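User: My instructor asked us to take a sequence, write out its structure as tokens, and then describe one feature of it. I'm not sure where to start. Here is the sequence I was given:
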Amino acid sequence: MTRQIRWVALVAAVMVFALLANLTYFGLVLAPQFESMSTNTRARQAEFDVHRGQILAGDTVIAESVASADDSAFAYQRVYANGPLYAPITGFYSYIYGSSRVENSYNDYLVGSASAQWLTKLMDSLTGRTPEGASVTTTIDPVLQQAAWDALGNYTGAVVAMDPHTGAVKAIVSTPSWDPNLLATHDLGAQQAAWQTLTTDPTKPMNDRATREIYPPGSTFKLVVAAAALDAGYTPDTLIDTPSSLPLPGTSISLPNSTNCGNSQVSLAFALEWSCNTAFAGLGAALGADAVRSAAQRFGFGSTVLPELGGVASQFPASLDQAQLMMSSIGQYDVAASPLQMAMVTAAIANNGQLAQPYLVQEVRASDLTPLYQHQVSTSQALSASSAQALQQMMIGVVNNGTGKPVRLPGVTIGGKTGTAQSDPSRPNYAWFTCFAQDPDLVVTVFVENVDTEGTDISGGRIAGPIAQAVIKASR
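Assistant: Let's start with the prediction itself. The structure tokens for your sequence are:
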């Protein structure tokens, strides 16, 4: 009998221990996760009674909470200054649909519940003071942001500008855009109607084309192949074959040039200046898939970037036959990149081979201005310094002598690369231009989605190039 009682006691003890362990796990692990879920309306109701912190672009307030002027149950109204301009950065903060972008990734700081704010929370609780969230200062330059917006105009596309030395993102524009104020309204019926309109709009205004969409990069990817070649021992003067057309092995297709590259040999520098397809397709084949893939990965392909905005990874194919490698070497086949990714490629070249990881949030400060977070620059080696410096000069040649001539500015040194790409024969071409400017140092990448013109890199420079030029002008 005693033995049976011991077994019952043991089982009861195990069950009590399991119950306590489950409650502890729920309280310490699951509960915070549930509270932070953007769909948790109970937590959001409590958040709406907190004075949410500001989001700033430099010293310019781009999102803030003000006391509600209506008769709703919410204490504060979220307001977005120039909402469509900054929508890809701020995202939205909605009672029904949760939050996105910085509003989501820095939500804990903005509502004052981050672990770094525990002392402030404790003092608020003890004193009965109304809680206030922290302010989040982004790296965005309002002047460059507006210039990129104005220059992109009615095009569907994106612009990214960044500091090549630190990785600080200075502008992110995606068009067409949308107004976060529509989803912040206290009129929940109007909020639902706005959501329905925005999410069913065929132009997809809520898509962030700068960081969360990937496209064939076209000839801008030739920068990656050129970097691999230079690191492998090629020089700008190395002669490479440039036939007028190049048969793709195992197919009945021949790859042509879209510019006049001759039908013999040209230097690597000339091939970049005039974006010779056959030269770079042959160069990629000579280097091999592993070398090109490795170079792409060092520039950031395959890695997620800018987590503040949920940036997606750009891709280079895992396996390739010879024909696929040749097409990949000119930025086609299954190569796909975001405008941010191509800005990273250009920034690493401009920064003498060092790739500074892009970032968007510079600092977070509590309501009493106490610093809670400061960004620390992080770099990695994408290519050697000597190769980067050689490639800088080659890119300057593209602007001074080649397909990038429309971007030239008197008194400003600019190095760039044009590109066009086709995703589907039934749709217009994509136009690209990515470049760096010196004094002040700035990288600008432009992507235009609907280009109803011939698919040549000269056209890419003519359409996307002037948009980049406008941003560079605004930086001076």
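For the description part of your assignment, you could build on this observation: The first helix runs from residue 2 to 36. Try explaining in your own words what that tells you about the chain.
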